[in-house]
Input
Amino acid sequence: MLTDDEALAVLLGLLAGRRAGLLTTPAEATEAAIAKVRRVLPVPVRQRLDALIDTMGFTVDERPAVSTGTDVLLTLATAARETRSVLIAYTDRTGSSTERTLDPYGVVSHAGRWYVTGADSVSEQLRTFRVDRVDSARPLPTRFAPAPEGFDPTAAVLSSLAGTPYAHRVRIRVQATVDRTRTVFPPGLATIDELAEPGWLQVRLQAQELTWIPRLLANLDQPFVVDEPADLRDLVRELGTRLVAGADRTV
Output
């Protein structure tokens, strides 16, 4: 009764609802529904969907989802579970297309998009790729060594996204706890490191535009120092001037 796309939609809906805490039904009911959907699927389809469930990471975000080819996603997930190399055709954000061999360590859903992370034959480094930009994926007969012990695909994807090169490199020191700072600079947006000076953290991110960052700093409501770029300091001053003007206005 269900196509691959429909079965994937049902299972991911149940998994997302369970992991995001959106389902009010008992956990047993969700597991029973997942089991029933799996039970009626043809064996090949069930095995491929199981591979996705076994290898996927998950984060919660309110941005709209980007359509991803089901066959490509399931091929990458199966390859990750079987530690099998994959030949992918990939189009990057500049429109350049390449073919490369990828040893996929896992697939991750974040901010409405799917990502695959693994060892890349072109750069010979750990790379993260958007699955919706993978034009094709073909399993190869070669196998690869499993990911290093303790490797977390979700953490790797978020770290990669936080370091994506954009027009501006931003470094800010804040006097706050990591938990407080993460409320406005979540994983995938910024990396946070502790500094030698007690109580201070360094926030690093890349941004195409700077205008939205002063609002985050105001929302953080903790002491901070903008190390770079100088243009961001100007924007923070402008926001402060507007806020003071609004506070002084009586009519």
The chain has two domains: 4-161, 163-248.
